[in-house]
Amino acid sequence: MAEIEHYTLNFGPQHPAAHGVLRMILEMDGEVIERADPHIGLLHRGTEKLAEIKPYNQSIGYMDRLDYVSMMCNEHAYVLAIEKLLQIKVPKRAQYIRVMFAEVTRILNHLMWLGAHGLDVGAMTMFLYCFRDREPLMDAYEAVSGTRMHATYFRPGGVYRDLPDSMPQYDKSPWRNEKKLKSLNENRQGSLLDFLWDYTEIFPACVDEYEALLTENRIWKQRLVGIGVVSPERAFQLGMTGPMLRGSGVAWDLRKKQPYDCYAELDFDIPVGRNGDCYDRYLVRVEEMRQSNRIIRQCIEWLRENPGPVMVDDHKITPPKRADVRENMESLIHHFKHFTEGYCVPAGEAYAAVEHPKGEFGIYLLSDGANKPYRLKIRAPGFAHMAAMNEMAKGHMLADVVAIIGTMDVVFGEIDR
Amino acid sequence: MTRSISNLHKALENQFSEKLISVVNALNELTIEISVDDLLDVLKVLRDDDAFLFEQLVDIAGVDYLTYGLDEWSTNKASTVGFERGRKDKQASRWEKPRYAVVYHLLSVTLNQRVRVKVFVEQESMLVPSVVKLWSGANWFEREAFDLFGLLFNGHPDLRRLLTDYGFIGHPFRKDFPVIGELEMRYDEEQQQCIYEPVSIEERILVPRVIR
């Protein structure tokens, strides 16, 4: 009989299950993966290089575009790194707003992940449910920053502006009648905080709904249980963080262990998996959504009772109020300086990491005292996870590769940078 | 953090006394600088010794110090193009150490501590020992640093380009590599294929780099 050799299969770069532009060369023995060689970089934009030629504040928008499903978490790490170098302390209210939106972002990210992962594995309904529930959070983004996705809302020293007192309303249109219009605008009568509070009341029931569809679903379990198992030791070796590490049973969460902003004052739990397979990581992420919901509620309660500044009052770093600029000479100068030249950051180096929905997202900032970073290195969690692809996929079937890509929660904006 | 930075500082000095070129304790972060020759030994101890237990390699970053400390403000004459201020006549950098550095960020989950290890690389050889044997996760980080800076990791199992295009020439994150790149690509209707040409756009700096 003739020898049958391994054959190679080209997966992607334009494949719906690749979650972006991932090209993989799969060496296969029949339907079993022998070696997976991911080719990344198809979305490489050189964010780190671009940041070197821009004043600090102008790169905040680039951070949104790294992991474009968890925008504000990326900004969070970036502004924390700058604040560390500047050695400034952010007002409490700004910290709470940031944390609240970081958690809103976590829910957004996990919903996107759950929908896409479900779709990859064959659960079409999940996608529709998740996108339905993402919509109000996107509206919250829009209300606070003016954009649904790329918010550019965080600033070194706080946040761009305080939370709005009213929510944007749906307009009359030929496609919806009075009754529909009224029901759409019903929970938009109060402030943004009321709107979000309303959402947090409903959201746990939505999560129950997802779980009713998936958690005990026979097909879902057959596709995920025992697939892509990572032991805690290997997870450390491979640099895994976030749900990928917690799925393997390591209770490590930067929000608890190395708290930044006001996380130390909030009450929440860290879900941990047991077997380190795709199914456990699913459970971990679903529970994280519930915990995020809890954190958002605590933040809303605090924010309702504590008005105050949301930006550092040092106008060497933050722009002065618009009204002052018109009346006060010094404010005018500050304003001009801030928007033409930016601010200089003392020479030194800092690494700031946040518990991003995907894992540890870090910014290593090297400053030589200029108004632009000398070197900015982005530590993307997905990068380390993607690097483990070969090890995780080995010995699995081709269809499982799709489940493994899904469970890694990869987004190529951050991996390729 | 459970253990204070100063404890770790002391432990590091006791363990590696003569191997440490410098220890900087700033902004609640610890940075140690060691020589390339000691790298593997020191990292191995950092990973395995009970006082350190850095079981995770969080990140590897290449750094190019070519233009460190240079600004674009103090020039002899202003240029006529855009806002750019005569970037041609640059003063020489005052940087005295080797041009390239590799920065390792380590994390200990058990002891909840971090450390940053920095090595400077000789420009003639560009060689750094690979740490893939210590942490498998280093594989792609090193490939990335090779791709973007041209650092050669000795002992790496598969040192290929990672982020740049197939057939890319040069190392784009070096400071002497232009931000606009060197080649541009377009689809040529007549030849019915993609062709590469030298870039047609000019580099323009909108905000000068200032050090105050």
Instruction: Please identify the structural class of chain B as seen in this structure.
Output: alpha/beta
Number of helices of chain A: 18
Weakly predicted, low-confidence segments of chain A: none
Q: Could you tell me how far the N terminus lies from the C terminus of chain A, measured between alpha carbons in angstroms?
A: 49 Å
Strand line-up in the sheet with most strands of chain B: 1-2-5-4-3
Write down the secondary-structure element order of chain A.
EEEHHHHHEEHHHHHHHHHEEEHHHH
CATH class of chain B: Alpha Beta
Residues in helix, % of chain A: 40-55%
Alpha carbon gap, first and last residue of chain B: 34 Å
Number of extended strands of chain A: 8
Structural shape of chain A? globular
Strand content bin of chain B = 25-35%
CATH topology of chain B: Beta Polymerase, domain 2
**What is the tally of beta strands of chain B?**
9
- The side-by-side strand order for the widest beta sheet of chain A comes to 1-2-3
According to CATH, the homologous superfamily of chain B is: NADH:ubiquinone oxidoreductase Nqo5 subunit
Description:
The complex is a heterodimer of chains A (417) and B (212). Chain A has helices at residues 47-51, 60-64, 71-86, 92-121, 124-145, 178-185, 192-214, 218-224, 232-237, 243-246, 254-257, 278-305, 322-327, 329-340, 381-387, 389-393, 398-408, 412-416; strands spanning 7-11, 23-29, 32-39, 154-155, 158-159, 348-356, 359-367, 375-379. In chain A, the strands form three sheets. In chain A, strands 1-2-3 form a three-stranded antiparallel beta sheet. Chain A has a three-stranded antiparallel beta sheet with strand order 6-7-8. By secondary structure, chain A is mainly alpha-helical. The relative contact order of chain A is 0.18. Chain A contains 18 helices and eight strands. Chain B is of the alpha/beta class. Chain B has a single domain, classed as Beta Polymerase, domain 2, CATH 3.30.460. Chain B is built from three helices and nine strands, in the order H-E-E-H-E-E-E-E-H-E-E-E. In chain B, the strands form three sheets. In chain B, strands 1-2-5-4-3 form a five-stranded mixed beta sheet. A two-stranded parallel ribbon of chain B has the order 6-7. In chain B, strand 8 (183-188) and strand 9 (193-198) form a beta hairpin. Mean pLDDT of chain B is 84; it is low at 81-89.
